[in-house]
Specification:
- The structure is a homodimer.
- Chain A is α/β, with parallel strands linked by helices.
- The first copy, chain A, has one domain: Alpha-Beta Barrel (TIM Barrel), CATH 3.20.20.
- Helix content of chain A is 47%, strand content 13%.
- Chain A contains 15 helices and eleven strands.
- In chain A, the strands form three sheets. Chain A has a seven-stranded parallel β-sheet.
- In chain A, helix 2 runs antiparallel to helix 4, helix 10 packs parallel to helix 11 and helix 14 packs parallel to helix 15.
- In chain A, 55% of the residues are buried.
- The interface between A and B is large, with 37 and 37 residues.
Chain lengths: 354, 354
Amino acid sequence: MKKLKNDTLIRSLLRQPTPYTPVWLMRQAGRYLPEYNLTRKKAGSFLALAKSPALATEVTLQPLNRFNLDAAILFSDILTVPDAMGLGLYFVEGEGPRFERPLRDAAAVAKIVPPDPYGELRYVTDAVSEIRKALDGSVPLIGFAGSPYTLACYMVEGGASADFRTIKSMLYSEPALLHRILEINARSVTDYLNAQIQAGAQAVMIFDTWGGNLSHAAYAEFSLAYIQRIVSELRREYDGARIPSIVFTKGGGTWLEAIAQTGCDAVGLDWTTDIGKARKQIGDRVALQGNLDPAVLHSPTDVIRTQVANVLKSYGPGSGHVFNLGHGIVPSTRPESVQTLVDAVHEFSAPLHA
Amino acid sequence: MKKLKNDTLIRSLLRQPTPYTPVWLMRQAGRYLPEYNLTRKKAGSFLALAKSPALATEVTLQPLNRFNLDAAILFSDILTVPDAMGLGLYFVEGEGPRFERPLRDAAAVAKIVPPDPYGELRYVTDAVSEIRKALDGSVPLIGFAGSPYTLACYMVEGGASADFRTIKSMLYSEPALLHRILEINARSVTDYLNAQIQAGAQAVMIFDTWGGNLSHAAYAEFSLAYIQRIVSELRREYDGARIPSIVFTKGGGTWLEAIAQTGCDAVGLDWTTDIGKARKQIGDRVALQGNLDPAVLHSPTDVIRTQVANVLKSYGPGSGHVFNLGHGIVPSTRPESVQTLVDAVHEFSAPLHA
C-alpha cells in the first residue's frame, strides 16, 4: 500500500511526534453540509445513502474537499450491525432510528447471530475499500462501530430512549440475557472492525454513546468489559502498519483510568472533561482525542478561536493529542465555523510541537 | 420549636453518628403514587397544585404516610422562581415546562428582578410553614431551589432542550449577559432559600440539573461559582438549629472536589458515581447523598434489596451518608418497590452504624 502523505493522525494516536495537532470531527460528513443534503436527497433516504458504497464514498470525502482535515471517517451508522442481524432498522423523520423487531426475550435473543462482514455487511467493507482508494493516501481512513452496550440499547429498547427503562430492567432483572446479547455484539463488532481494517481502515474507533448512563458498577460489567474484549481481539497491525484503536464513552469522565486499561491506543473525551487533568491521569499510557463543546461552533469566529486555543493549552505541549469535538457536529452548525476551527487547531498547535 | 423525633437526616448531613442510614427520595411525592394523581386531578393542573399551600402540604405528606422515610421535601417546582419574575410558566402535557416570555436579549434581562419570597412566592413560604406544622416534629422538612444555571437554561431556552443551543450560544458569545441573569438568579435563590428556612425548612438542597452538560471550565464559571455564592449567604442556623445544605449537580462526578469546596454540608451524587470512591475523595469534608440508579426500582424485590446493599456497602461503615436515588423516581415506578427500598436501607444499614 501507498505511504500516507499526512500521517499526523496515526502518529498522534501512537503518541509519536507530529509538527502540529491533527484534527477531525465526529459527524464531519453530515447534515450541516449542503452538499451532503443534496447527496442524501439523491439517495432517497439515509439508509439508502449508507448502503451505497459509491454514495457513502462521496459523502465521506465531502468535508475533506472543504476543510484541511487530517483524517476521513467512514460514513455509516452504528446500527448497521443489528440491522444485519435482521432486527429491521428504519428511521422516523425527526425521531431517530427504530427497530421493527426489538429483542425482548430469550426466544428473540436465541435467533440472532453475528453478521458476516462480507455478507450482510458487504456494503460497508466495500465502502471502506472504495473510500480508501479515493483518498489515495492523502489522509488516513478511520473505521468505526458502536459499543456492544450502546448497540444493545437500541436493540432492546427498539429505538432511542429517555430513561432506558427496558434495557435497564433487563440489566438488573435478567443480567444473563443481556450478557448473551452483549457477547453476540462483541463478537459481531470484533469481526466487523477487523473486516474494516482488512478493507482499508487505518484506525478504528468504538463509540459508546450510552455507557455513560450506567452506574459505575454496571458500566464496568456491561459496557467496558465487552469493549475490552473487542480491543484485545482487534488486528493491531495490517499490511505493515500499526492500526490504532480509539475508545470513546460519552459521559465516561469518571472512568478514564479503567478505559485506558482496555489496551486501546487512545481515549475519546467529551467536553465535560478537563483534557489537561485527563492527560495527567492517563496521558502516559494513551493518546487523548477531543474535546471542544460542539455548541462552541454556534459562536463568532473570535470565540471559536479562543475556545480552540483553550483546549490546546489545557492539553499542553507535546504529542498524543488528536483534536476533535466532545460529541458530533450538530446540523445547525455553519460550515464556515468548521473552517475556523480546523485552521485554528493547525495555527495554534504548531508552536506546541516545536 | 419542637425537638425532632427523627433527626437522622440532619445528623447524617452534619456527619454525626446515627443508628442507621436515613433515606428520602427525590420526587418521593409524585406521579408514581395514585393518591398524588387524585390530588393533582382535584387541583386541575400541576401549577394549581404547586400554588396551593393546602394541596402542596397534602402531597408532601403522602409518601410519609406510606413509607418509613426519614425526611419530607417541600412539594414545589424549581421554576417557581423565574415564574415569579414574570416569565409566564406553563406546562404542555407530556412535554414539560415552558415559558411564554423567554429571555433572549439585554432588554428582556434588564426587566427582571429577584422576586419577593413573601410576595409573588408567598404560596411557597406559606406551604413550608403549613407542612412544617403538619409534620409536627416527626421528620425534618427539606426546602429546595434550582441552581442559577439550571434556572437560566429554562429561562433562556424557553423550556427543556436537547442541546441547550440558545443558552450555550449566549454563554460563549455574550457571557456578560448570561452572568447578569445568573447574578439575578443567585440573589433570588439565596433570598428564596433563606425565606424557606425562616418559614420552617430544616435543610436545603440546590438542584443543578443541567450544570453537568457544561464544559469543565464553563461549569466552574457559570454554574458552580453562583452555587458557591448562594451557599455562602445561606442561614447556617435558625431557631437554635443548624440548617445543613446539599448541592447536587447531575453529571458532576468529575467535579466533586470543587463542589465540596463550596462550603455546603453535603454533596448529592448521581448513580454514575462510585459512592465509595467519592467518600475517599471528599468524605472527610462533606456528607454524601445518593445514589441508587432509579431504574433499579423497576426490578423484583430481591434485586432492589441487593442493589441497595451494594450502595450501602460501597459507602461503608460510619456516618455521613444519606441514602437517596441518583435522580428522581420515575412515574412508572411501583409504590411497593419504594417500600422495599426504604425498608432495605434501614435493615442493611443498622449494622454499619453499630
